[in-house]
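User: I'm putting together notes for a lab meeting next week and I want to include a structural view of one of the chains we've been expressing. I don't have a solved structure, so I'd like a prediction I can at least talk through. The sequence is below, exactly as it appears in our construct file.
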Amino acid sequence: MSVHTPHPDLPPPTLSVGVLGWLRSNLFSSPLHTLLSLFAIYLIYLTVPPIINWVFVDSTWVGDTREACSATTGACWVFVKVRMNQFMYGFFPESEYWRINLAFGLLILLAIPLFIKKFNHKGKLALFILLVYPFVIFVLFSGGYFGLVPVETSKWGGLSLTLILAGVGIAASLPLGIVLALGRRSKMPIVKSVSVVFIEFWRGVPLITVLFMSSVMLPLFLPEGTNFDKLLRAMIGIALFQSAYMAEVVRGGLAAIPKGQYEAGEALGLSYWQSMGLIILPQALKLVIPGIVNTFIALFKDTTLVLIIGLFDLLAIIQQAFADPDWLGFSIEGYVFAASIFWIFCFGMSRYSMALEKKLHTGHAR
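Assistant: Thanks for the context. Below is the predicted structure for the 366-residue chain, given as structure tokens.
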């Protein structure tokens, strides 16, 4: 009687594993995919090497005047280097830059514990950042207290102003949007009607109109002699405008919660606010994290619209630098720098939302 001896497993075909396998399955799996892949590689060949040469290889980084860039064929980053302080701090007095640095440094220190898994007071710290920190940053920026030199809001600008506008809009629009979303789904007719009218009104006008109205038209309706700061008016307008969009994002999350979750809250004897706070809202907000972050990213980019009311955010102050006779002709470097800064912040928010989705994933993803 013969004994069956199994042969050892054969290795997979060479063309199905490793780099060759990846190329075959992802780029050249069919004639059409091969044609499109070759066309994409050709476009990359045409565009990427010249861009790298212009940005890095042939560029000039050292110097203090435009003469340093006279012999270069690449980018002149000396322009950005010389104007860097103005791009970051606007027209803020140079001797007071430390106040802006302290404000954002303090924010980073306060935010670090929120990312530490074992830190048990994240809720209290988040409330402190939302409710107390804005007053701290207002005192540091505006001055007039504790011996600080007063600085008018018209001198705020650059990246610091962009971050302030985006930060205030994000911090104010999320809680207000949640309240509006709950109001729109309320069974009380007056509450529901007020919420619907508010949301539809602000969604029916563009942000640029809101900023124009807050800057030009609103003072006409205020009592004579009333001095309402232009930056504060812009912040209020941005917060109200974004809260309407945020309300619709949150409402989508609330609509996705099964009816059984509401009934479970009632069966446990929870009140409306207990049921919302402990059961419904945590699930709804988790479902709409991409939509919430998308709204935040849109808000961050829309801050550039404040130029129409005379506020100089990062993009506006870069454009203002183009008018300097000593630096004419370096607009491309300025726009590339602005695009890089906006991309870093927007990409950071996008990646954080993905990490947050992964962390809060509880098996409901399809």
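A couple of points you could mention at the meeting. The longest strand covers residues 312-313. The chain has two domains: 27-59, 77-92+151-360.

User: Perfect, that's what I needed.
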